Amino acid sequence: MWADNETSDDLLGFKVHADLIVDVINDNDVLPVTIGVFGDWGSGKSSILKIVEKELIGDGEDGFNDGTLVLYFNGWVFEGYDDAKAALLESIIEKFAKHKKLGSKVKDETIKLLKSVKWMRLMGLGFKKIAVPAATAYLTGGVSLIPYLLNEFSKIEPTELANKLKGDEAENFLSSIIKKNEDDEITMVREFRDDFKKMLDKSKIEKLVVIIDDLDRCTPDRLIENLEAIKLFLNVDKTAFVIGADPRIVRHAIELRYKTDGIENSPDIESRNERIVSDYLEKLIQVPYYLPKLTDNEVETYLSLLFCQKELGSDFNKVLDAFYLSRENNRYGVFGLGDMESILESNEKDKLTKSVSIIASLAPIITEGLKGNPRQIKRFLNTYSLRDRLVRVAKISDFKMDILAKLMVLEYSSQSLFRQIYEWQSSQKGEPAEIIDLELLVSENKVKEIKDKYTSAWGTDKVLRWLNSEPKLTNVDLRDYYWITRDQLTTSISGSSLISPHIRSLIKKLIEPVSGTALTRTVTNEIKDKLSEGDYETLISLLEKELTKAPEKTEIHQAFIELIAGNCPNIIEAYKRTIKKVDNNKIPFNLHNDYKLVESRNPEIKTLYKIFTKESQIYKAINNDK
């Protein structure tokens, strides 16, 4: 099995990207700078950031080397704080305060800066947790407060002040006091930046590099707070910030915070929102760097290296060194078993040959099915490896792992089609006639006939290549293969852990109670023609799962209806498929009004009316309208 952790071991050939980022950081003329390492969920951002950290630190200790201090943070750790902005600032200052070499040099500055952060938290929304206890301490003779608050409190008669602080309106009272002097916040930012710069100068470091990973796992508010902390308080001379995130999540967070709301969903308002998001992102991230997806050759190389890592243990380092050397001369070709011939022992070759050859032969469709995503690939292999063990434990004879691998590619890349084959084979003793027909049609290049006879989903380029790839499934008894994967047939095929944060956020937006215009905007602006084929397939599969669990929830049905109204691909088939599986008596009967409203935009919705069970209220409501 392979751990799903970031690593500084470069199995992806990504060092070239890390070297580019390091080169930008080392250019003093561009500092201060904020670099965004952008890529989809699981694309290898974290590993690149780890390589950047390793390159900058080298043989240094405590993150310090050749005058450069490198601080590494996971953005997710700030999620639980009342003020993520203050939490980030406090964490950076504490790193300085506790640093073995630098702490004593900047003791006074760190103390002052930490006090400033506490004032920021007081000015934030945490009044109940921070300001009220502090004010109570003042009234009872406790430690002194910030002079500004003391001055304001002194103007109020003590008994009246005590009542205000004890009442339900204590938070509003304190908030109004702070807002009397709104210039304080501007002054605070300026003074903090000056003090932060003094701390850097006094520490004698040449450069501060702050790396923040997993920012896209934070809630939108926390994400924005972290970005604003960098821009407002820390972006001073000799600093570089490197942020790893999914750009779609970042843009969504900015849109939620700063979008322009309008009564109508007009193109002008949408265009203005888009400009606001783009302008804001450009101000926060000066250097955006988008990671490319892996090519077929890179996927095959990655697969080979992963199996070597698993089988060779500590001896894997010799393969890794050979890979790095090979990449200096050939960055485009496959690094496979042939390239390891001279460094592997005969028993090591025997261990690797079967596994690597099976997976490598499927590299092109794995690349396309999993979108060249390293995390998806690694988890695909973990599931493959686990099922390989199950085959051996269950003592299943005549089981071909290359057939399992091929089916798993479809399982991960097109879940609805994977289930379709399951349904076919379960009623035909494991050998579906439809597969024989499909493989024959694709060999004769009869794509239109495939789409007409089955569905358009079977006629996509991706699925056609899958059908045409070896090994063929004609006359293969698929029962054992589906028995091995049966744990996945009643749940999300790829498991919730394989779903990107972006798709999770879209699902949440689709099925939570919202206004009709908000639902329409989500479908129009974020789903239709905006998602990759794989992400769209995952989204629809998750919607099916949600409806299967709760067919009584109107909001889930309305999400399907809005997608149908938007003429999104394969959505009616998915909705029908789910309707057939659930108890139709639980479906809200008043949905028939929603169906009727959509008929003019997508008449195909009428084909839905025939599949409801006749005793259900929804069937009766539809037929009473006729």
From TrEMBL:
Superkingdom of source: Bacteria
InterPro entries: KAP_P-loop, NTPase_KAP_P-loop, P-loop_NTPase
Transmembrane segments: none
Residue ranges occupied by any KAP NTPase domain in the UniProt entry: 15-390
PANTHER family assigned: NTPASE KAP FAMILY P-LOOP DOMAIN-CONTAINING PROTEIN 1, NTPASE, KAP FAMILY P-LOOP DOMAIN-CONTAINING 1
Name of this protein: P-loop NTPase fold protein
Species classification: Bacteria, Pseudomonadati, Bacteroidota, Flavobacteriia, Flavobacteriales
